[in-house]
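Hey team,

Filing this mostly as a record. A colleague (T.K.) asked me to run one chain through the structure pipeline before their review meeting, and I want the input and output archived in the tracker in case anyone asks later how it was produced. No errors, nothing strange. Just documentation.

Input sequence:
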Amino acid sequence: MAESSFIEQSKLRFNEGEVIYRKAEMAQQMYIVLSGKVRLYVGHEPVGDWSEELIKGDFFGEGSLLESIPRSHTAVALEDTELIAISRGTFLRMIRQNPEVSVKMMQRLAQRNRELAAKVDAEGGRARGGKAGQTSASLVSVISGKKYWITSHGALIGRYDPNTGIHPDIDLTEEDPQLSVSRRHARILFEHGRYFLVEEHGVANGTYIKGERLAAGDARELKPGDRVGFGMVVLFFERPA
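Output structure:
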């Protein structure tokens, strides 16, 4: 079978918010992301803690090809997404015909192990008694005083989307009766012990640090005490020394 024909026959399309598979399901397929974005949640539902976001060229679900074990995550399409599904039989044929496939997979698995080790190290510095994956940094609402913790893999900031059922990591729905915050408004990245704020594309009402508006895609480092605005919602960035 020609490669292009195989890809066309193996393509799957998922709409934004659609579950690809749930934790504990038994399956014999892995997936490669052709377009869109996939998030792997820790629990059985697409809410709360998550471990990884995957984009074009990434693969996931490979454990089902190696062992007959239940899924360890719940996979959800964060936006309209196109995948290639590869069964165990197809995968074994690919390895026999092209051993480089197995080498590339082992390299990717080694990379994931390194990233996991880095996350574990970062979690070692979180506040005592905090949740797993939680750092000691947070955003604190000026109005309600509520504290929103930032996890070691970063945080998506926005409002709950009832159409897709997707909750952002920092859900400002209760803080935003004027609906000035976008569903996917901004993202906090945590890298090498530093925090950066990046506005998502298509945001109407702006993202601000100390009154200065960020350009979409422009990463700006957050410092303790910074006043941060998302639309009409204002919070302070806190990070103990």
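Quick notes for T.K.: The first helix runs from residue 3 to 10. Residues 3-123 form a domain with the Jelly Rolls fold (CATH 2.60.120.10).
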